[in-house]
Write a structure and sequence with these properties.
single chain, alpha+beta, ten-stranded antiparallel β-sheet, 13 helices, metal-binding, hydrogen peroxide, Catalase, Catalase_core
């Protein structure tokens, strides 16, 4: 299938016109009084060009502003119909077209590809049951589990409102606050060399959240998805990433495009972990805790299929900048769990697209459910409605019309979790004990098996915090000391070597 971002209203004869199809006499001429007099307001072609130029930028994403992407397909390699009844998994060998966008989280649209930051890994599948979006990251966990903290956290990754500069004091002040140290596991990921992937092609993707998948018998499980690169993991050291940011800030974007153009199509093998409700109740942490991973010894990976990217977009703005992903875009048998951060994303993502792209963003070709088509005459009108607006269909479900609702007998969640209790505020802060540091300590041990990685972790943290004030440095040392005292000592040593005063003790 060709790139769906092309439109049929572009002239094939390449005659240059204004935006409503009127041919130009001369695209560089302007209407003036005499040879050197003022311009005339009647020069509609000039006004058309200038007025559109003032409006050709749309709001950038906040976050995930900077990114790149490509089209491809997902192919089923293993039967998982016992886990999920979605049509895309119905038979081995079945292929579903998709588009994937990779991104950094905190930086602006023009920021560097190699910045120390988590990466987004979002894929839209054009399935026969409607569009499905897997809106994932390249880390299996995140910084928080209270959705109310998300805007606060992202603000600490942005620019100071007075200086308009990035501020390590703000970054570390937020993250070392005791109730926010639930981020420690993600910080260990971020400040290891895993925080600076060398290529979008050479990193994994993870659902992070627990989702709920069910088979056609109604049996359901919690599920996490792992998308593992077939190219092998490749990361940059801090110094390599900084050097590349100066030499070629768009390195990863270029690397992805050029490899696909050469026919070196990147691929990833897709796996799932599954967990029953009974198993979830026995966990030492909540299944809805976005800061925890599921141990693979207890919940082994099960192969599902392969994701391949084999087609560059013909136009970046149309196909990638306008691509709108949301975990609320789902298909039968794949549902959201009660993870509070996931629940908040079900609202926040499509709301962001309505602001950024308009109320009818789903009509933009890259976002259209072309494989299934759409029919809902209640959702209509609004700015930039270009699909015919359902013609003369009534704008409500009329009694004299027939409507097919084939899924009305399919159970959704009434046979699954049952929730009872009063509406109440709940602040899911860092545990006063050690449960939120257990997996961070385990990760530090894993890094110890990889030559130089523990030292690189200390170096990367110290490089970032070296310009922070001494009391913030003290808090950073205290926090990482809870992971490993040797790690804190190495961070302090690195800070001192950078010539910045650190606290005498930690």
């Amino acid at each position: 299938m060709a790139d769906k971002t092309n439109t049929s209203d572009v002239r094939g004869d390449r005659v240059v016109t204004n935006s409503v199809g009127n041919p130009y006499n001369d695209p560089f001429a302007t209407q003036r009084i005499g040879q050197h007099g003022p311009l005339l307001l009647q020069d509609s072609n000039l006004l058309d060009s200038l007025a559109h130029f003032n409006r050709e930028r749309i709001p950038e994403r906040n976050p995930h502003a900077h990114g790149a992407g490509a089209f491809g397909y997902f192919e089923v390699t293993d039967d998982i119909t016992d886990v999920c009844g979605s049509a895309m998994f119905s038979e081995i060998g079945k292929k579903t077209r998709c588009v994937t966008r990779f991104s950094t989280v905190g930086g602006e649209k023009g920021s560097a590809d190699t910045a120390r930051d988590p990466r987004g890994f979002a894929t839209k599948f054009y399935t026969e049951e409607g569009n499905l979006d897997w809106v994932y990251n390249n880390t299996p966990i995140f910084f928080l589990r209270d959705p109310s903290k998300f805007p606060h956290f992202i603000h600490t990754q942005k620019r100071d409102p007075q200086t308009n500069l990035k501020d390590p004091n703000v970054f570390w002040d937020y993250l070392t606050t005791p109730e926010n140290q639930v981020a420690i596991h993600q910080l260990m990921q971020l400040f290891s060399d895993r925080g600076t992937p060398a290529s979008y092609r050479c990193m994994n993707g993870y659902s992070g959240h627990a989702y709920k998948w069910s088979n056609k018998k109604g049996e359901w499980r919690y599920v996490q998805v792992h998308i593992k690169t077939d190219q092998g993991i490749k990361n940059l050291t801090n110094e390599e990433a900084v050097k590349m940011a100066g030499e070629n800030p768009d390195f990863c974007t270029q690397d992805l495009f050029e490899n696909i153009a050469k026919g070196n199509f990147p691929s990833w093998t897709v796996y799932i972990q599954t967990m029953t409700e009974e198993e979830a109740q026995k966990l030492p942490f909540s299944v809805f805790d976005l800061t925890k991973v599921w141990p693979q010894k207890e919940f082994p990976l099960r192969r599902v299929g392969k994701l391949v990217l084999n087609e560059n977009p013909l136009n970046f703005f149309a196909a990638i900048e306008q691509a709108a992903f949301s975990p609320s875009n789902t298909v039968p048998y794949q549902e959201a769990s009660a993870d509070p951060v996931l629940q908040s994303r079900l609202f926040a993502y499509p709301d962001a697209h309505r602001y950024r792209l308009g109320a009818n963003f789903h009509q933009i070709p890259v976002n259209c459910p072309y494989a299934s088509k759409a029919f809902n005459p209640v959702i209509r009108d609004g700015p930039m409605n270009v699909n015919g607006n359902f013609g003369n269909e009534p704008n409500y479900y009329a009694s004299n019309k027939q409507y097919q609702i084939p899924g009305q007998n399919r159970p959704i969640q009434q046979h699954q979790e049952v929730w009872n209790g009063p509406a109440q505020p709940f602040h899911w802060a860092t545990d006063a004990g050690d449960i939120d540091f257990v997996q961070a300590r385990n990760l530090y041990k894993v890094l110890g098996k990889q030559p130089g990685q523990q030292q690189n972790l200390a170096h990367n943290i110290a490089t970032h915090v070296a310009s922070a004030c001494p009391d913030i440095q003290k808090r950073v040392l205290d926090m990482f000391g809870r992971v490993d005292e040797g790690l804190a000592a190495n961070i302090k040593k690195e800070i001192d070597q950078n010539g910045t005063d650190a606290t005498a003790k930690f």
